[in-house]
Specification:
This protein is α/β, with parallel strands linked by helices and about 110 residues long. About 40% of the residues lie in helices and about 20% in strands. It is built from 3 helices and 4 strands, in the order βαβαββα. A hairpin with a 4-residue loop joins β3 and β4. The longest helix has 18 residues, at about 10-30.
Length: about 110
């Protein structure tokens, strides 16, 4: 699932990401949500992402990952449910942020 209300992603990028999300869900059973917004208005990204995931009811049995990107804030967070940490450990989520996303926010 992707929420990108300001259309930062192209249709092609969205299709590619949705393919990865489906692959992760099919292979690992992890529900992945990507949220891209302009700003979170000075809020800290990790608690914001956690609260959003809880509000939306993301991930049954804590098998979930929520990636939040606040473009204008140049900030992001990846939060995981406890069960998903088997696949997405802190070092893995840090690597994703550093190697795959951060350079897009400069």
């Amino acid at each position: 699932f992707i929420s990108d209300p300001q259309d930062y992603l192209t249709s092609s990028e969205e299709l590619q990401i949705n393919g990865l999300i489906k692959e992760i869900a099919d292979k690992k059973g992890v529900e992945v949500v990507v949220v891209i917004v302009a700003s979170i208005n000075g809020k800290k990204p990790q608690p914001f992402a956690t609260d959003l995931g809880n509000l939306w009811g993301v991930g049954k049995n804590d098998m979930c990952l929520l990636l939040l990107i606040a473009v204008k804030d140049r900030n992001m967070s990846i939060v995981t449910g406890d069960a998903a940490e088997e696949y997405f450990t802190d070092p893995v989520t840090k690597m994703i942020q550093e190697e795959e996303i951060k350079h897009h926010l400069k």
